[in-house]
Amino acid sequence: MSPRTDADELTERPRVPLSRRRVLRAAVRLADRDGLESLTMRRLAQEVGVEAMSLYHHVANKEAVLDGVVEVVLDEIMTAVREAEAPPPERDWRAALRARILAARDVLLRHRWAPGLLGARTTMNPVVIAYYDQVVGLLRAGGFSFDLAHRALHVLGSRALGFAQELFQPGEAQPADAATAEQMADRFPNLAGMLADAVHDDPDGTLGFCDDQFEFEFALDLILEGLERRRAAGA
Amino acid sequence: MSPRTDADELTERPRVPLSRRRVLRAAVRLADRDGLESLTMRRLAQEVGVEAMSLYHHVANKEAVLDGVVEVVLDEIMTAVREAEAPPPERDWRAALRARILAARDVLLRHRWAPGLLGARTTMNPVVIAYYDQVVGLLRAGGFSFDLAHRALHVLGSRALGFAQELFQPGEAQPADAATAEQMADRFPNLAGMLADAVHDDPDGTLGFCDDQFEFEFALDLILEGLERRRAAGA
DNA sequence: ACCTGAACACCGTTCAAGT
DNA sequence: ACCTGAACACCGTTCAAGT
Asked: How far is the CA of B51 from the C1' of D9 (A)?
């Protein structure tokens, strides 16, 4: 590679030519840092030290950028899943699938904007197809009929890829003062009771009322257990 | 205002004054007809026969329009859920919840753009809170502890509101010819096997390979069964 | 082959002006 | 009180022109 100046080191390095790969990695970096709404063609160009129109030599259009960004994240997921420690599915398909899904989830937690984008993409992504093919293979090795494996894909849905399926985004949930808290208890007595119950268990307060990881695993285990029950029943 | 022509009668009717309610109902109509991406302030104004800037007298900004649109759909869901025929939860909480969720799903199927929008909204919507409060109340009446009801909300996730959680959007899935089909069988042997198996059961072809309603109910029943098992075990 | 500047057709939104 | 036209700061994208 060619020599570079201090400025190059710090900001851009125009010497290494632009490429699709470099554009997409910059897009992921931009979304990680500033959020998905900041990912515009103009800001992306700025991120790689080029004018906006230059991007069109490496990607067809913005849609292609979003597809590419999804691709990068999915590749990251596939790598994480491949390296996840898990028993062979022939011995314990539930543990095998569980480990893979939790590995996928770890990746998504590093790109919080990704689930929304992945969910919006309706086009069949080859990487996603390959992933679901692996899941079906795992289930087959675990003794599933093709038919029940099909059911399983639908039950798991995007959870198979580690999607959190959260109820709400955390934050901005606390009532401002005791008055509004009381008002809330009036309007939503059941939720208020649930919250009070949780506080009783954990006197530190409502902190950790929803432990995302715990909830994710509880849901996952319930689903896997239901699937195992049907598999064993020969469904 | 000036006298009007026949065209006025047919398209707009400026006589009934603009209102927040009228703007939001027009927005839902526009999204239903042309898709969510067509819902711009300018086109929405056109839909109600007014200039874009007039909208700002009735809604704060576009974000408020989207919030309002969500509100309209949620109101529709709440009405459908309220009118759903269901046993009292004290007698059969599973049937009670199942009927309500399927009623909610019916509404969402009439506004196919709504799940994406509802999913993107992270702010706590009062109507959603009220709905989840009702679900917790139902579970309580069915014998749930607050703690397990809390778990239940997370397991159900947006499925409690009738979200389909589909794997892919239908369409554009068929391989173009036999060659690519064979190629697909090579790359994704498990999915190919699954598809072949389904074709065997239903010789009419791959039509209805994924019966959305069936899959939704299968998943829902599996989840409800897992919850009932935990409730009965006194979790 | 790769990059660019100017331009176009769209956005959401502000503001001063109309009635 | 309600609506409007012109304008601003942004989009994605096209196109002809540069090297």
From this structure: 20
Number of domains in chain A: 2
Say whether A121 sits in a helix, a strand or coil. coil
**What is this structure's pTM?**
0.86
Spatial distance between the Cα atoms of B189 and B178, rounded to a whole number of angstroms: 15
Instruction: Name the residue of chain B whose CA is nearest to A171's CA.
Output: B123
Residues B126 and B25 both lie in one domain: no
Could you tell me which residues come within 8 angstroms of residue B80 by beta carbon, excluding any fewer than 6 positions away?
Answer: B103, B104, B106, B107
Contact B155, B74 (CB under 8 A): no
User: Distance between CA A27 and CA A33 in Å, rounded?
Assistant: 10
Residues A152, A214, single domain; the answer is yes
Collect all residues of chain A within an 8 Å Cβ-Cβ radius of residue B150. 194, 198, 210
User: Which chain A residues contact residue B206 at CB under 8 A?
Assistant: none
Helix (H, G, I), strand (E, B) or coil at B71: helix
Average model confidence (pLDDT) across chain B: 84
State the residue range of the domain holding B117.
71-169+178-234
Whether residue B191 and residue A132 make contact (CB cut-off 8 A), yes or no, is yes
pLDDT in tens, A72-87: 999 999 999 999 999 9
Chain A hits for B132, CB-CB cut-off 8 Å, are 167, 191
Interchain contact, A151 vs B230, CB within 8 Å: no
**Shortest Cα distance from A144 to chain B (angstroms)?**
11
Residue B61 has pLDDT above 70, yes or no: yes
- Asked whether residue B149 falls in the same domain as residue B227, the answer is yes
Residue predicted with more confidence, B149 or B164: B149
Q: Look at residue B129 and tell me whether its pLDDT is greater than 50.
A: yes
